[in-house]
Q: What sequence folds into this?
């Protein structure tokens, strides 16, 4: 029997391997890896630059992970799927047959066309450990770094580089930082904190032109720099499936079983889009927890089990220079908030349900809020007014608590 | 508030090297003695509120606390002692009767401590209870005077109703209301596990405890609270309470503030009303009246349940007991003057009544003299503190003993003697839900079972030492006792010889 | 497997469990030395008020979302116990964002910590259970585990 085949070797792939093994302990698994590293935690690359981890500790699983799970890792780039024959052709011409295929191809940095970019010598994206190593080799204490993009990746990169570089300027077309997860109001608190920690921002602006080591912004301002980081955004890697007519939107469309529109082909992780409960629509929710859980569900189903990836919501926990920001869900419905000068808790409720939240600074037990969204807890069954101030399971009824905690009440 | 005329009785001694300011003392003190001085991050105490219940001491995780008696003292005076003066100050301020809880703390003679137990040597050798069978089971109730046969010559085996106990110990009456729900639950569950009985007191029987019926004595007192036909039928025996050792001649008064929720329902009186038990039963002015009530209760329960009549040990207890024995009662319970209470006027508690040892000896002797000892069982209480007190009581003539204070101590009571405030930090004598919760009946029951299991072992050891293998053979066996340091009169009443005789 | 359960009927809100937890994880042999003058960061915490209180610590879920969500792969299960490899944790606190019980907290250094049933210290058995004065916290096997 042909092996299980996984294209990609990130966290979704690791989840997929563990999912398969939870059902089928024996049959062969082949993993096609475009990167030369064993599976590692992508989000840790900024912590690597910061010195909070190292290449060894960044390994997502133990050294013997592939061996103990009977996986063959083949380095290479998948070029084309033959869904009829049930095989995948790699760029070096190798053809790998599969019984079930999982696309865990992730996403790639999106770099918009910018005049003079080719002439910039020290530039990098910030997606992979190789990117981080490259940046490490570029940056010295004298470096002035320019980061294009004030999103999660750009800001984590800025945090990682701060103590390694002379100065850091972050430029973004959006008029506030973290525009994908914060509104202007909450972003202002974060921006103040970042500026207090030495970052410079040029927001609502973009690069008109690079001339060697000088960037000229649309506003006319010129920013000299030594190192350029491109962190504008990412795009799901969907080409493999698109080219054989599979359903693709912003990501590869999957159902809760992580099946694509093509039989025997599954997909998981950042390359996918699936049903997101707070918006009621298909969305790409490219976060690591989803990658693992989707991969695991895909693996179980590939091996003949039955698993569903549900209760999918966007969520992010990000710490920047000691300030923690947590967000989840969609910002629809009526907002209410508790705030101070440096902290914020904002909740979005709609039709008696919690739809989303933004927490800046106060993040204790935030998972209780997340669970309200994911479990669609009717807010009139809890003391939500008190809950907004302090996340606590004491605001559930005793009955609910008994079920949650398995205790005798 | 004006000038406090008296320095606080206790001092809270906090070892600041050990105090980690975890605030458990603060959270656990219902009297609000402890608090955190936020500005300095240290714990401080208001000693004037301390009742020395030792809850904080017991829970302090670093043993940073102790409570000591204040050595701030008035000029010594053997006549006008500190406590006496303190009481005067209190009354001068309040204008009221002084109230106290638990038993008489005065240094009056404890005869148990002046009685010594015998042991066998050489002849009639001792028995090893770990190797030989040893019977501690007793039956309480009327026993036939003689063997009787019917016209065919067959033995008449029907006995009046009997209570079977695995050991001669029962928990005496403590009402639900004076005690917490969890204290009652602990007692009921322990009684069931041990094969003995507990007593509802006059608070009625909470419906949750109906299932412990065969281990329950239901009490009928002068207030008749919670008494109905179902109540009478639900227990194993019925006790008519005529008096209580801690407050002979006095009724009871549970303040309306404690008559809340289940307590009100169980007592069958409205919430917030004071539960006042009259000093007398208003339908009992003679032994004949008592007999009427005894038989009313027997009638209501189809003569299936023994009836106990409980009285306080007072001066002419022997004559009273004789009357009770003739009233049709199956068991007489006598409560000595050191018996506990949830609240009693201090003067009454400390000055009225007589010691149980003397009352027991006098009653047993009187009933024997009158040839009616077998027509009634004798249960005594009022500060039975340990297994040797039990053995001595049995040898003086008791069929069984009642214990209460010892049980409460097992539950955590530290004898601070402020039950009447309703703020028992140990969750025993309180109805405040946050305090009641502190007594987990799983633990309470376990500790009561442990206590009496230990006593049972000790009783068997002492019996074995005397060469006695059945508790029945010890009952009234005063030859096994000797007095020490007692006067001729005391020995005469106790019916025992002096040590060395 | 045996887990720590809290019976809120018997929880007194005394917070002793938190202190015994902090002490057990201090690595010191004397509680006063270990905790004096420190703000404790225990792995169990008491919630509620005077009328209802209960201690919360890790449920050791069969399907732990904290483990699935950990961006560093630092959370793992060992014999059913959900544990953290502290050296791998970078303190992103995603685990806190996903735990529906609020069982994880940052430690003094910002790294995530959670109840590991006192396996990682010298306590032997869960210190909160041993320190509970009213047997509200128990360590036992139950069928209805999440």
A:
């Amino acid at each position: 029997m042909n092996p299980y085949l996984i294209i990609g070797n990130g966290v979704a792939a690791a989840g997929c391997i563990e999912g398969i093994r939870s059902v089928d302990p024996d049959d062969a698994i082949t993993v096609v890896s475009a990167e030369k590293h064993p599976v590692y935690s992508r989000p840790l690359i900024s912590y690597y630059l910061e010195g909070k981890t190292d290449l060894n500790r960044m390994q997502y699983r133990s050294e013997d992970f592939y061996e103990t799970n009977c996986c063959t890792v083949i380095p290479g780039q998948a070029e084309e799927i033959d869904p009829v024959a049930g095989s995948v052709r790699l760029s070096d011409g190798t053809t790998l047959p599969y019984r079930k295929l999982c696309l865990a191809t992730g996403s790639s940095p999106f770099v918009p066309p910018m005049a003079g970019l080719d002439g910039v010598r020290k530039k990098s994206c910030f997606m992979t450990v190789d990117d981080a190593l490259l940046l490490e080799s570029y940056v010295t204490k004298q470096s002035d770094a320019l980061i294009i993009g004030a999103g999660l990746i750009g800001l984590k990169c800025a945090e990682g580089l701060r103590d390694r570089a002379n100065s850091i300027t972050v430029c973004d077309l959006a008029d506030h930082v973290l525009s994908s997860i914060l509104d202007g109001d909450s972003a202002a608190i974060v921006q103040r904190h970042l500026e207090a920690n030495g970052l410079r921002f040029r927001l609502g602006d973009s690069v008109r032109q690079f001339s060697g080591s000088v960037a000229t912004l649309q506003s006319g301002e010129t920013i000299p720099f030594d190192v350029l980081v491109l962190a504008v955004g990412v795009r799901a890697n969907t080409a493999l499936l698109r080219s054989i007519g599979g359903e693709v939107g912003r990501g590869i469309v999957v159902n809760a079983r992580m099946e694509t529109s093509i039989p025997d082909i599954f997909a998981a992780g950042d390359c996918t889009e699936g049903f997101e409960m707070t918006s009621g629509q298909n969305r790409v929710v490219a976060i690591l927890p989803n990658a693992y859980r989707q991969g695991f569900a895909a693996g179980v189903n590939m091996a003949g089990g039955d698993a569903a990836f549900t209760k999918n919501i966007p969520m992010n926990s990000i710490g920047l220079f000691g300030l923690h920001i947590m967000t989840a869900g969609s910002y629809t419905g009526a907002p209410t908030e508790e705030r101070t000068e440096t902290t914020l808790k904002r909740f979005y409720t709609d039709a008696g349900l919690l739809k989303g939240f933004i927490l800046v600074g106060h993040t204790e037990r935030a998972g209780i809020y997340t669970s309200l969204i994911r479990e669609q807890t009717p807010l009139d069954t809890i003391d939500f007014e008190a809950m907004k101030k302090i996340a606590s399971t004491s605001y559930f009824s005793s009955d609910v608590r008994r079920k949650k905690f398995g205790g005798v009440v | 508030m004006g000038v406090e005329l008296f320095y606080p009785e206790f001092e809270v001694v906090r070892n600041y090297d050990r105090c980690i300011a975890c605030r458990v003392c603060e959270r656990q003190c219902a009297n609000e003695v402890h608090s955190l001085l936020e500005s300095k991050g240290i714990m401080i105490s208001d000693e004037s509120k301390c009742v020395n219940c030792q809850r904080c001491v017991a829970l302090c995780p670093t043993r940073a606390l102790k409570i000591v008696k204040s050595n701030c003292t008035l000029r010594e005076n053997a006549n006008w002692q500190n406590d006496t003066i303190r009481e005067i100050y209190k009354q001068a301020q309040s204008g009221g009767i002084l109230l106290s809880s638990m038993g008489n703390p005065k240094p009056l003679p404890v005869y148990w401590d002046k009685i010594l137990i015998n042991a066998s040597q050489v002849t009639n050798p001792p028995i090893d209870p770990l190797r030989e069978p040893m019977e501690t089971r007793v039956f309480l109730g009327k026993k036939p005077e003689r063997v009787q046969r019917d016209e065919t010559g067959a033995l008449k085996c029907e006995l009046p109703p009997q209570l079977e106990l695995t050991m001669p110990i029962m928990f005496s009456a403590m009402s639900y209301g004076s005690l917490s729900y969890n204290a009652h639950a602990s007692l009921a569950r322990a009684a069931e596990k041990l094969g003995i009985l507990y007593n509802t007191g006059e608070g009625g029987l909470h419906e949750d405890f109906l299932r412990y019926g065969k281990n329950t004595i239901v009490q009928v007192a002068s207030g008749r609270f919670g008494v109905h036909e179902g109540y009478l039928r639900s227990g194993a025996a019925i006790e008519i309470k005529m008096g209580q050792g801690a407050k002979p001649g006095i009724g009871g008064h549970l303040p309306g503030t404690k008559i809340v929720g289940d307590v009100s329902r169980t007592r069958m009186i409205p919430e917030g009303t004071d539960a006042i038990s009259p000093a007398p039963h208003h339908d009992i002015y003679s032994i004949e009246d008592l007999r009427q009530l005894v038989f009313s209760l027997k009638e209501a329960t189809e003569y299936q349940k023994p009836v106990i009549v409980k009285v306080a040990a007072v001066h002419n207890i022997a004559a009273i007991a004789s009357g009770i024995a003739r009233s049709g009662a199956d068991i007489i319970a006598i409560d000595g003057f050191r018996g506990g209470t949830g609240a009693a006027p201090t003067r009454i508690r400390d000055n009225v009544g007589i010691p149980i040892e003397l009352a027991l000896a006098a009653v047993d002797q009187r009933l024997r003299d009158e040839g009616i000892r077998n027509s009634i069982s004798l249960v005594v209480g009022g500060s039975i503190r340990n297994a040797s007190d039990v053995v001595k009581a049995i040898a003086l003539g008791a069929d069984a003993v009642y214990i209460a204070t010892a049980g409460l101590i097992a539950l955590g009571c530290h004898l601070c003697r402020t039950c009447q405030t309703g703020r028992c930090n140990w969750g025993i004598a309180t109805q405040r839900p946050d305090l009641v919760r502190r007594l987990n009946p799983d633990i309470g029951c376990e500790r009561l079972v442990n206590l009496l299991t230990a006593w049972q072992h000790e009783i068997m050891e002492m019996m074995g030492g005397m060469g006695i293998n059945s508790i029945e053979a010890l009952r009234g066996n005063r030859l096994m006792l000797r007095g020490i340091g007692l006067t001729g009169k005391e020995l005469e009443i106790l019916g025992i010889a002096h040590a060395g005789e | 497997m045996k887990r720590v359960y809290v019976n809120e009927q018997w929880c007194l809100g005394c917070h002793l469990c938190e202190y015994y937890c902090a002490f057990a994880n201090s690595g010191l042999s004397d509680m006063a030395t270990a905790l004096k003058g420190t703000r404790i960061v225990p792995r169990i915490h008491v919630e509620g008020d005077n009328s209802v209180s209960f201690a919360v610590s890790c449920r050791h879920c069969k399907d732990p979302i904290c483990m699935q969500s950990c961006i560093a792969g630092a959370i793992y299960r060992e014999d059913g116990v959900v544990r953290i490899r502290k050296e791998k944790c970078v303190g992103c606190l995603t685990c806190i964002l996903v735990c529906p019980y609020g069982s994880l907290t940052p430690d003094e250094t910002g790294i995530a910590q959670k109840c590991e049933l006192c396996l990682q210290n010298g306590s032997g058995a869960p210190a909160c259970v041993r320190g509970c004065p009213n047997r509200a916290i128990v360590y036992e096997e139950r069928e209805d585990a999440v």
In short: The two ends of chain B are 62 Å apart (CA to CA). Chain B touches chain C through 22 residues (CB under 8 Å).
